[in-house]
């Protein structure tokens, strides 16, 4: 089992959010639980190759 961090907020009657590792791929839900389910779905799509040219976030050490 993998643990992923995500950012989320409520905008009027919808919950919006994205996975921290994939901030360009936002999703939504009518409840927080639906948002979490949608985040799981998009994670599986992003990591399975179903979405082409996935953009990632990396860290760079600069001296």
TrEMBL record:
UniProt xrefs under InterPro entries: TTHA1013/TTHA0281-like
SUPFAM superfamilies: TTHA1013/TTHA0281-like (SSF143100)
Top-level taxon of the source organism: Bacteria
Name of protein: Type II toxin-antitoxin system HicB family antitoxin
């Amino acid at each position: 089992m993998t643990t992923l961090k995500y950012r989320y907020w409520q905008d009027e009657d919808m919950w919006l959010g994205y996975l921290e590792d994939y901030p360009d791929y936002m999703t939504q839900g009518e409840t927080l639980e639906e948002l979490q389910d949608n985040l799981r779905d998009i994670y599986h799509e992003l990591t399975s190759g179903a979405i082409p040219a996935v953009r990632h976030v990396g860290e760079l050490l600069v001296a």
